[in-house]
Amino acid sequence: LGEDPIWLGAAAGCAGVLVDNMLNVSLHIAVPAFLFWWLAGSTLGRGARDEAGRFEWRAAPRIRRAAACVLVCFAAFVAWTQVRFWEREAWYFAGFKLARMGSIPASAKALERSRSWGPREVNALYELGNSYARAGRAADAAQAYRAALDANAGYDEIYFNLATVYNTTLGKPDTALKFYQTAWAINPLTNDLANVLSSFYLRAPAPQVEEALAVLREAVRNFPDNPSHWNNLGYALSLRRDWPQAELAYVRALSISPDLALAERNLAGLAVQSGRPRAAILGVLGDLRAVDAAISRNDFSDRTLALSASAARRAPDLPKARFVNGSILLTRGMVSEAIPELEAAAAEDPSRVPSQLNLGVAYQAVGRVSEAVSRYRTALTLDPGNQAALGRLKALGLAP
To answer: Could you give the CA distance from residue 81 to residue 87 in angstroms, rounded to a whole number?
Structure first.
């Protein structure tokens, strides 16, 4: 091989990158591609050097012809494989685009062509399953999702979609449960999955309470502001007759979403089942409905204010109670009294646009203009098209 066999290592490196690129994307990345072509140039340029450093292979003509034949066949195989990859990807992206445009039948046909070129590729097969599912072809969707998992078994969303097809369309809930469980094992940070899986465990006639509790406790830890998880947790705890903890879970759900009627009914039912006193928040919610009705009639009388103040006093951690009370105080011109209420509401639920807006109005009314502007801009961050916030900033001569 001569005194300088470095070129042989370069040739081996080129071969390794080519093989890896059949399974990966090495040559699509700048640094590996740069190194590949450097090594390829070094290898091919070796034959143009002086005689002393040139490698000469002495072998019988038959062996050389056989080696050349093998090399040509290998090159043809690699070239055909790349053609297949190209066609598969081209039809995949065409199908993906058609699906996003709502052309589901055309999308399915393009993705079927992608599949026919092969070899299996998880994204193309997953999109094919999605197109079949949207077209109502449940059995075909299940088959495509399974093929996608055969190509790459690491995607929780494929397990979730496959389970949903089995559960809602194919009528195989037991099979669906296994796939939901696998999706949860891969990725428990999914709101929809936590909701579906816990509902599966809690369904009649034989609720799997402990399994549901395991899912829901993780769900409320990961998504503490999701009222549905808290409501389901309360229901699961009530099945265990753990009344105090169930009540706390229902109260938490209603603190986040006072209009969640299911949680309110469950909490009221808990008092009947357990013999415990009715939770105080139920009375507060009743008063808030009465206040809402009065506001809809433009009734901001002393009676309405007294009712809202009572609700805010009895449920200081309920953002809606503090917001409603602060807003009525603001409407009646009692700005100094309104600000603490609106600040509390905005602190408890910073994602609520009306809280930010009304607090901004209150700040502006007492001359705290910079703080008001900050609240208006926060409202626009939450709702970029909010006309009230835009109007307030425009009136101040400021850009959004």
So the answer is: 10
